[in-house]
Amino acid sequence: MREITRDVIVVGAGAAGLTAANELRKAGLSVAVLEARDRVGGRLWTDVVDGATLEIGGQWVSPDQDALIDTVAELGLETYSRYRDGESVYIGPDGTRTRFTGDAFPVAESTARVIAGITERLDAMVAEIDPDRPWAHPNAADWDTVSWDAWLRAQTDDDEAVRNLAFATGSAMLTKPAHAFSLLQSLLMAASAGSYSNLVDADFILDKRVVGGLQQVPLLLAERLGEDVLREQPVRTLTWDDSAVTATADGVTVHARRAVLALAPVLYERISFVPALPRLQQQMHQHISMGFVIKVHAVYDRPFWREQGLSGTAFSPYELAHEAYDNTNHGDDRGTLVGFVSDRHADEVFRLSAEERRERILDSLSHYYGPEAKEPLVYYESDWGSEEWTRGAYAASFDLGGLHRYGADLRSPVGPIRFACSDLAGAGYQHVDGAIRMGRLVADQIVAELRA
């Protein structure tokens, strides 16, 4: 077993861990990054499948994500806008397909008024939320003990309005059923994007992509660290006291003064802590879970929907694929659609055979785009729920009542151990932007401590 000594151990070579490691290195501290996978990037993964380049993990850059935008520019990467020319498609409760332009779904006027009124109310509530301290709001306890679905249904008996309002933070972002998380958790999700209106605006939240793929961010950050990034080294044991920590992985033991756990909280249990983490952390981590979504990639010989005057943007809370977009790569003559199947729908189709699942999902896409959608050249499902070192998508969130009960302690240090990942972020929560912010934050804290 190889033994090395560093100032800081970073567990996890995703955007948070690699950002932290680079910031620590800039400050003159030595680091070792231990990554369980055979690649860097965590939930960012750009790969070639059957000759098609696919963003298997995260991919979007929003205009408010300053930390990510600055990092992309500093690394010399370029971005391009998601294709959005033409009309969008909405499918209503009776299966009627409607083409439309603008942000508002083409629903009945009465439903549109309800959606607008509740959206205005939510924007006002979100404006009062500090995304770094949502539990500090005077109504936090009340808002955290009512489910997102129950709160919405208390506002209106218009089911179509409820479904359209619920899916923005439910199926689309937290990727859990709307009854499974709280109003406060939903408000945090919206506050992390600046407002509820931002969160439901596809042209805002899904604005740009990185030419060549977003995984280039962690790849280039790892390149700067060279041999200090050790792949295929899952940490099995973390032994710690107040002043030091030792990580034992499969092929290396690292001694350090500090450690950063830069992985999703649901994975902490994969590490044996000696001594065990305090009772508070043990309890808290049992109230956090990942959502689940299938990201579906369908590649065609051309973006045929554009010939129909469609942007590729499609929504329906009644469809198996509840949303879909033109995901054609920069400079690619082929056309790519990306669709999403979330929470209970994802559970249901994974009970089918691969062939049946493919048929069901493509049939849903055909409801938006027509029969050509059923015949892709390349078809691929990103299934992060079965990925050993992720266990879900997109990120972790609390169960009912968990956020106000434990949120203030999520980032609390334990001896020499610090925590950093997008799941713990305020601004940029669940996004690469939040991961970068958290990496910078813990690096600054550690530098200040070790230089004191």
TrEMBL record:
Essential cofactor(s): FAD
Keywords of the record: Oxidoreductase
SUPFAM superfamilies membership: FAD-linked reductases, C-terminal domain, FAD/NAD(P)-binding domain
Residues that, per the record, bind substrate: 340
UniProt key word Oxidoreductase: yes
Matches recorded under InterPro entries: Amino_oxidase (IPR002937), FAD/NAD-bd_sf (IPR036188), Flavin_amine_oxidase (IPR001613), Flavin_MAO (IPR050703)
Protein name: FAD-dependent oxidoreductase
Organism: Microbacterium caowuchunii
